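Protein modeling request. Please complete all fields; requests missing the sequence field cannot be processed.
Requester role: graduate student
Desired output: 3D structure, token encoding
Chains: 1
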Amino acid sequence: MRQSKFFMPTLKETPADAVAKSHQLMLRGGYIRQVTAGVYAYLPLAYRVLNKAQKIMEEEMAKINVPECLMPALLPASLWEESGRLKKYGPEMFRLNDRHDRPSLLGPTHEETFTQLIAKNLKSYKQMPISLYQIQTKYRDENRPRFGLLRGREFIMLDAYSFAATREQLDEQFDDEKQAFENVFKRCGVTVRPVIADSGTMGGKDSTEFQAPAAIGEDTIAVNETGTYAANLEMAQSVDDFKQAPEAAKDLEKVATPDCDSIEKLAKFLKVPATRIVKSILYIADDQKVLVLIRGDKQINEAKLAHVIDADDIHEVATSDLEAITGSAKGGVGPIKADYADRIIADNTVKNLYNVVVGAGETDYQFKNANLDRDFKVDEFADIRVANEGELDPVDHLPLQFTTSIEVGHIFKLGTYYTKTMGADFLDQNGKTQPVIMGSYGIGVSRMLSAIVEQHLTEHGIAWPKEISPFDIQLVQMKMNDDAQTALAEKLESSLSAKYDVLYDDRKERPGVKFNDADLVGAPVRITIGRKASDGIVEVKRPTDEKAQEIAVNDLDAWIAKELG
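Delivered output (565 residues):
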């Protein structure tokens, strides 16, 4: 490819509104251009990278016998009404009506579409296990699209779906997809950590995220130093090493605590540690009132809580509504005689506490010396607290370290979450009707480009991993009016193009411009044809090298073969 004919509109200055390094470099290098907020055009450089990444994905999916297909992006809203997700997905969904006023949507994901396909075409256990995948554009109306391709309203995604007759088949499919995804990330040159994750609006219980550590990452993951434990902060667990010595139960005592609407104020007023206080927070979960208890020094993790409650909608009761429901303003809510609550759920930190302080169910009053089972009851205990950095992980009891990262993939064991609702049934070996067991697997293809750039920055540009670099080799000719340089450059272009993707910079530009642009292209091998061309000498340079090195043209093939494998 001749660079004089290649569309690569570079920028000299970094755009002021681009915060992420990947966003800055892809704008400066002419990889992408914004069309509107959160929507980008992929120019030739980016499109070449995307195509190479997608080819790797196709190869890895073929290895586990998963065929590719393509579903529509424009979907009937009735599909999502059937699954129950139309309301749950919220304002991030692009909705529209056609000329007949029939509601439709632009697909943010395709569980419903694939489930409907299977419901109509798969009827026997003999047809399973089977999986399908597509690489397609998705649409999500992000409230604050930012960081270029990392948080967009239109993006490219690989989404795969597996269908099984038994849990054992699902487990095998899940493991196959996980290995295929790990192979994809490795070949694309992105370092990832598989971490325990929250399923969110996807449904199901078991899920794993693939997180790419990066300074600009929007997610926080908790890991130990050996890598034996890794989890998204939403799902991270830690060991609670606090132990209260057993005490004889004391008489319950009601005390006035004016203006103590926080744990800090209450602890200071009563002159007790926060570990001696149990705070009570009221949530609405669908149509239920759920009172949640946790030790005073800890915070509730609402993602974990949502898993325990298993409700479509969960939110803390507004302060303005609290007194009407509980009889107390904020700070006075407590578990004793909390008849208004349909359920009482407590964090595990509430176990084995003695003579604690709890809200008295009256504004500005607390009970001292409250004891579990004697004074208040709990319907269920669970881990619903936020893990803190430095606490010990639950596997090897090593300190948790927090790091920012970019989610580039997510895999789920959905089970029968969709198939039961949407009637995707089959006949088992005994002729009995059963719901198909499902899995869902996704890679953010365009987002992965940003993650790779974030992890492969150089001082002046990008060092693309060799399998997805837009070009394998860039030839840079210093003087276009030098006949010896032109002859050698054209000879190399012809011979190397038979094996490699070659970009030949044949522009009549100053050397500084050419080298700056070459840094932004980031090819694994740069060959500079300069003043020693007539002597059969060129310069070679990797993106991470500080300086170029001279090499004889006769030795060039061997050097390139070693570099590019």
